[in-house]
Input
Amino acid sequence: MTEVRVHLVGAGPGDPGLFTQRGLSLLQQADVVIADHLVNPELLLETRASVEIIRVDATFSHDRSKREELVRQLVLYASTGKRVVRLKGGDCFLFGRGAEEAEALLDAGIPFEVVPGVSSAFAVPAAAGIPLTDRRYAHSVLLATGHAAEGESAVDFSHAANAADTLVVLMSKGRLRTICSELMDGGMDPQTPAAMISRGTTPRQRSITGVVCDIADRVESSQLDLPALLVVGSVVNLREKLSMFEDRPLFGKRVVITRPRSQSQRIVQRLMELGAQPILLPTIRVAEITLDEAGQETLSQLASYDGIFFTSTNAVRRTFEELDRLGLDSRVFAGVLVISVGAATSAALKEHGLVPDVDPATFSQDGICEALADSGVDGQVYLYPRAERVRETLHQTIPAQGGRLMDLVLYRTETVTESSVPKSLEEESIDAVTFTSPSTVRGFFERLGSARANAILAETLVMAIGKTTRAALVERGVSNVHTPDRSTVDDMVDQLCSLIGDGAA
Output
């Protein structure tokens, strides 16, 4: 049986949480991902570092030559043995070109698999508080598109006026006035409830309600974004009671995330759960430094040390990567005092089956001395897996207490040098910018330039995860910095809610 190399995967309506498990599994294994322009970029964070990502622009559906070139790419990649995911918005086979691409692959002799996605036809009305059916008001649903293929006339909505209790029209904004006129010409009551929903299931969702005779005027004056769909029927009246999606505390707030993409999943997840729109602007990347023979010898003799300091999740990850290369595991820590700084670092250690012995309340001289008071520092030798550039806290504290600190440099943080920035950072208002380390601060200013960085930060809420990160911002002239009581992502997000969320003072 020929191995399937191309998967046509429905990406869902916009919320990455509505992506299917099968789609996620394939995305994480893909060598090449070809994604529609409306696919949420958060999904692409789930890919491997080596993946090739191709974004299809907005003109694709109207340009035959681009569609033909895409099929040629699918065939070429599959023919060379690469695993290809063709990521399409919503469901592949509902008002998209999934069937056309599948036929083209079949004609080229390329086996494929179709992975259904959650369609916006169902998810978007639900997110707006509109059930498509209800035994009191609606027993049938008609799905239609506001567009049609080249050379064909659009749907005649005068025939759809009384065909079902609820009508859902995707891609309808451009022809909304005509659609409503045809519905009324077909005998639909002009006072039938109607709603137009834009950017459904995302933090940019907006809903306009009215009736068939005035919904076009309401939408025209509201400047709704695309994509948008129309819902017509008595069920629209239930929105007033059932709508909760747009009532979340950070709904619609735009929050910039400056940490590396590989470490952004947790904060992105929390922000989206609360209704915010994360804007990914990674300012640093983590580059591996491979250990030489001396470094490998140091790590293999870890049991000869009295203790080991872990001060970041990157240090944990890189340490266990190097242990794995040496054929070693967490058993090498037997008898070694494991000191973890920060809740995220402790959580990363526990994922490897290692529970920290000591967790200083703060990463300061006083905090470290207090945490190590019972075991004592005098005469002790500690290993410190770390980045190429670090704060001097441990190098000052441990020798001052009579101990020795041995460095093991495993990685460096590099500034992301891409000149482009997300359009939303340039063209739309920003509600908050978050920084999770001094290196993200440094990278932000280096990537944007001091003048531009200061101008952005002067007009928005600035969040620093801890005191040292705050100090790095203050050194660069940023004064409006907020810091949570505890240095965790969750506490930083909670403070955002209290400062800019609905109901914040």
The radius of gyration is 27 Å. The first helix runs from residue 21 to 29.
